[in-house]
Amino acid sequence: MTMSVAELEEARRALDAPLFADVAGDAKVSFEFFPPKSEKMEQTMWQAIQTLAPLKPEFVSVTYGAGGSTRERTHATVARIAAETDVPAAAHLTCVDASRDEIAEVARAYWAAGVRHIVALRGDPPREGERFAPHADGYRSAAELVEGLRGIAPFEISVAAYPEMHPEATCADTDILNLKRKIDSGATRAITQFFFSPEAYFRFRDRAAAAGISADIVPGILPVSNVAQTRKFAAMCGAEIPAWMDRLFDGLDDHPATRQLVAATVAAEMCRKLYAGGVREFHFYTLNRAELAYAICHLLGKRPGTGTVALEQAA
């Protein structure tokens, strides 16, 4: 990666000055949630949205399960965000266990609910250990899904990228080519799976650029406060948890507040390194909690906007 003079100066300043001294606050942010399974979880999620909304995110996205497991809850959550807030809502949509007609029906329902942004994913098999098998009348890949959505409505479309390679990819080059197919099919941007090495992101960004991908590749940030849970996520998406990170959380099982502080510190430092390398957009996997993402955004200079965000209290 060839850094510009401005980026080199920023990198030097990041080393010479206090790490978060007067960061400009010019980064764009977005946040991901999952549909709540209970009334208590719904209250927690809406409290998180209320906390993060004043930071004026570019969008908030809501994940989506296969085989109808969360489809209705995803739709209800996204529709409520679209109806009750000024924050653009994005809905996840996958190819799993759905025909093209069923996907079209879901997409049109999102459009009717005011949702203009889809996160288009091939999706994981509904049962652990199985390989993805397309529906007989469905889309075979995320690239096909993107192309199909383009024919339904003029959605903004985000797709997934894998800095440390998708677990099913045969090599890094084929993984990049698959991303290029998704972008060439009409995707607006790519959002990466989480990672814990800035170098992994920068190397991936360089490979994508060399392959002719000019769309934004937004780093997905997962602040880790539960290492066991993160290890499970990482095994599913091909991310590596460094040994030093494992060691940082040793002995903290009974100290949740300390785990939060360590998690915020580690994720914020990585975001600062990404910022020093020219990154100005971050996507946070919130796990439906606001505290860690809000703290990191604050360190990056993000402050609540001067305008009022229209957000109704959760019923």
Provide tags for this entry.
single chain, 315 residues, alpha/beta, TIM Barrel, eight-stranded parallel barrel, 11 helices, 8 strands, 43% helix, 14% strand, globular, disordered C terminus
Short description:
With 315 residues, the protein is an alpha/beta fold.
Widest sheet: strand order? Answer: 1-2-3-4-5-6-7-8
Distance between the termini: 49 Å
The main pleated sheet reads as: 8 strands, parallel, barrel
Helix content: 40-55%
CATH architecture: Alpha-Beta Barrel
Estimate what percentage of residues fall within beta strands: 5-15%
Say what the CATH topology is.
TIM Barrel
CATH class group:
Alpha Beta
- Arithmetic mean pLDDT: 87
Figure out the total of helices: 11
Query: How many whole angstroms does the radius of gyration measure?
Result: 19 Å
Overall shape: it is globular
- Supply the helix-strand structural class: alpha/beta
Provide an overview of this structure.
Helix 3 links the parallel strand 2 (60-62) and strand 3 (89-94). The chain is of the alpha/beta class and 315 residues long. Strands 1-2-3-4-5-6-7-8 form an 8-stranded parallel beta barrel, surrounded by 4 helices. It is globular, with a radius of gyration of 19 Å. It has one domain: TIM Barrel, CATH 3.20.20.220. The chain starts with a helix and ends in a 16-residue tail after the last helix. The protein has helices at residues 5-16, 39-52, 71-84, 100-112, 142-150, 172-184, 198-210, 227-237, 243-248, 256-276, 291-299, and strands at residues 28-33, 60-62, 89-94, 117-121, 156-161, 189-194, 216-221, 281-285.
